[in-house]
Amino acid sequence: MSGSDLSTHGGITIRTDLRPGDIGTIVRWHGVTYAREHGFDHTFEAYVAGPLSHFALHRTRRDCIWIAEHDGQLAGCIAVVGASPTQAQLRWYLVDASVRGRGLGRLLLDEAVQFARRAGYESIFLWTVSALTAAAHLYRQAGFELVESRPGAWGAAVTEEKYVLKCNT
Q: What is the rounded distance in angstroms from the CA atom of residue 59 to the CA atom of residue 23?
């Protein structure tokens, strides 16, 4: 998928373009979801907002975002953002609770990994928290390896985890 191409997955549409309202919606959605499910505070929302704004203003052909919608509402998203000429970062990966368990998370992750490989990145990394066990399971199935853990806080104490995937394997 590229540009504003749409695909469909079980009644969910997936697109790769940003439209008016998307940035604010993604930031708010992350803030509200992580506050409700994990006790995060407003600092996590700011953590999402800064890099997402930069992505929207400086996106290159080696960066991509996938936005999934169900019944006109945000249902999932994921992005690949260049961190260096050889390394990409996986960002803003979230699937709404109302559509979890339908394969959308795996589909989004697979799309992102395939894109990063086609874009010529040697590796992809991501930061997550240890409480997201279902996501970690998907990362490991996709070939990501846990390489670092450290204490963190988003209004709640967390263990941040860094996963890396070598793209040439």
A: 13
| Close Cβ partners of 57 (under 8 Å, ≥ 6 residues apart) | none
Is the CB of residue 154 less than 8 Å from the CB of residue 116?
no
Contacts of 19 (CB under 8 A, 6+ apart): none
pLDDT one-digit tens code per residue, 104-150: 899 999 999 999 999 999 999 999 999 999 899 999 999 999 999 99
Which homologous superfamily is 6-122 in?
Answer: Gcn5-related N-acetyltransferase (GNAT) (3.40.630.30)
The reported pLDDT for the residue numbered 9 is 61
C-alpha angle 112-53-31 in degrees, rounded to nearest 5: 80
- φ/ψ of residue 135, rounded to 5: -65, -45
Alpha carbon distances (Å) from 25 to 37, 142, 166: 18, 28, 32
- Rounded-to-integer distance, Cα 88 and Cα 84, Å: 7
Task: List, edge to edge, every strand of the sheet that includes 145-153.
Answer: 6-9, 12-15, 64-70, 73-82, 87-95, 123-129, 157-166, 145-153
C-alpha distance from residue 6 to each of 14, 16, 164 (Å): 5, 8, 29
